[in-house]
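Q: Predict the assembly, please.
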Amino acid sequence: MFELKIRADVLREVVELTSCIVEEIKLSIKKEGLYVRAVDPSHVAMIEMKLSKNAFEEYKATDQDIGMDLGKLRDLLKLVRPEEMVSWRSDEKKNKIILEIGNLRRSMSPVDLGGMTDPKVPDLTLPGKVTVDINEIRKGIRAAESISDHIAFLMTQADFKMEAEGDTEKMELVLTKENGITEITSPGTLRSLYPLDYLTTMFKAINAPTVTIHLANDYPTRIEFQVAGGAGEGAFLLAPRIENV
Amino acid sequence: MFELKIRADVLREVVELTSCIVEEIKLSIKKEGLYVRAVDPSHVAMIEMKLSKNAFEEYKATDQDIGMDLGKLRDLLKLVRPEEMVSWRSDEKKNKIILEIGNLRRSMSPVDLGGMTDPKVPDLTLPGKVTVDINEIRKGIRAAESISDHIAFLMTQADFKMEAEGDTEKMELVLTKENGITEITSPGTLRSLYPLDYLTTMFKAINAPTVTIHLANDYPTRIEFQVAGGAGEGAFLLAPRIENV
Amino acid sequence: MFELKIRADVLREVVELTSCIVEEIKLSIKKEGLYVRAVDPSHVAMIEMKLSKNAFEEYKATDQDIGMDLGKLRDLLKLVRPEEMVSWRSDEKKNKIILEIGNLRRSMSPVDLGGMTDPKVPDLTLPGKVTVDINEIRKGIRAAESISDHIAFLMTQADFKMEAEGDTEKMELVLTKENGITEITSPGTLRSLYPLDYLTTMFKAINAPTVTIHLANDYPTRIEFQVAGGAGEGAFLLAPRIENV
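A: Predicted assembly structure:
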């Protein structure tokens, strides 16, 4: 059983973030909040997210897992103003999920959990860590898009750099504590290359002023961010592209 | 002979409404105003409209029918601000229609009336009648679009309901006097199913705060609305889809 | 060697104007400013432009020609706010062009000048000349677009007219000193027909309140305009379409 009430814009944020990774998602509804963990079909990216029950206007739930079709949720949220309240509950007798927004009511079958794997979040040792203005990262990603399919993240003790290279051109965005960086820790120089298409989608979905990027050499990155204005937290994991040396 | 002057936004409203049904239209210009009646090529929908001469800034006309290409009018109106005045007249010697907006002048041949039928508006007995906020109807239509190609209109003595059903999901919008309904009369429960694509187009074109929907069981609906802020009135007729029982 | 600093919106204006004609351009950087002259691949249109060094915030240059890929510049400018400053210089050792906007740095190879011709601007005798509100010309162009691929420019001693004709329709925009014309000189009636697609693109790119159009009978037109709010000047030349008589 669950009976939740949540602002439309918060639900939309959850839907946008998880849609970066999968089209159908397993939500773990627990007494203290909502948990999500999913890996994308090509096993390049993962999302991990907790949404405290404080992110909801009303929250009554017994522990359970439920499968949701994110596209159907997104369609519904298009009809609604950001500040409208969405009531979201299960009708266990009919095996339906009910969503109500004002006088509009939509019911849908939960997605079968059988086909959904429960990915193990790998235990990564990432010695570099930078907290940085999200708009600077977005600028770097967009500047790289017309040049390459990949972007390099580089970190030293003093700066965080994004780099992309094409056949005859190159871009570089250098961030320091003067512009964009709040905090940085690195044992030395670190560098990894990541696919741009994933980063583009992820940084469109993240709705927080800063992100914390964890980095190592030629290794996955972990990008942490707040969800729902601080009532939740999320992280994307993204596999590197290993360059041929 | 006719010599009319009309605000661009009023003419645009007439063009948008009639474009829901046909691409070329026969306008009946009478001494007291403009009359339109047209049926769509697949005979699923009809429009009936009167625009009093009060909707015009200037109105001089002898009784006549004239064929207009709505796409050409729409192209012209894209160039103009809503409050600009369109002068619209016939040049009978050259068999042309002249449209002038400020210093811009466009002439076009009238469309041959030979191919245009003069549809008879069927005399429908529709016992249910509801006057309702147009934005609520629009919301119901949009909510149904991702689920089905059809939407059901249901009426009781107390409420008006819109319903659509997909394979595993369902939507329902219930309107009462508390939300959206101004007036409702029904002999009991009525229900008919209508094609969504027509309704989507029609409700985009209607420019009035409320509509009055007339309903019966598995029967056409008649949707009445004001045109030009009350200087005219229109109605769409839409055939039901009869469900196999 | 060159080392320039220019507002992003001024650079964008230059890029938009030259992109009407070519995708890769030869810029002649001189001590007193920037010069451009290019002909489009089908030899229908030309651009000629000078941008005084006053259009730049900083300007240090020795005389030289350099080839730029306009698409790459346009991509970069999408990332930037209009008022941001672009630093633009050559790195001669590495044979690169460097563009820097704040902390973002992009380098690219110059385009090989070998394939670029240096078009001779024809010496045209155009007896008619009208200075006219650019928005009136834009309105005429848009009104013609749904009717024809060509538009006629006509000039008398008193007015400037734009005309287009389709199979069954016609448009006409008449400009006089009452509406749109600042100055007009013509020896009599002049008329030439021009391709609309070129004009549409050109008049989207021009960023000046008025243009001066030079005209003759069945002959190229020369359209002059200010660039960078007066710190530069440009002209498009456009070949006529000669009608079969």
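The helical segments of chain C are 8-19, 70-77, 134-145, 196-205. Chain C has a mean pLDDT of 95.
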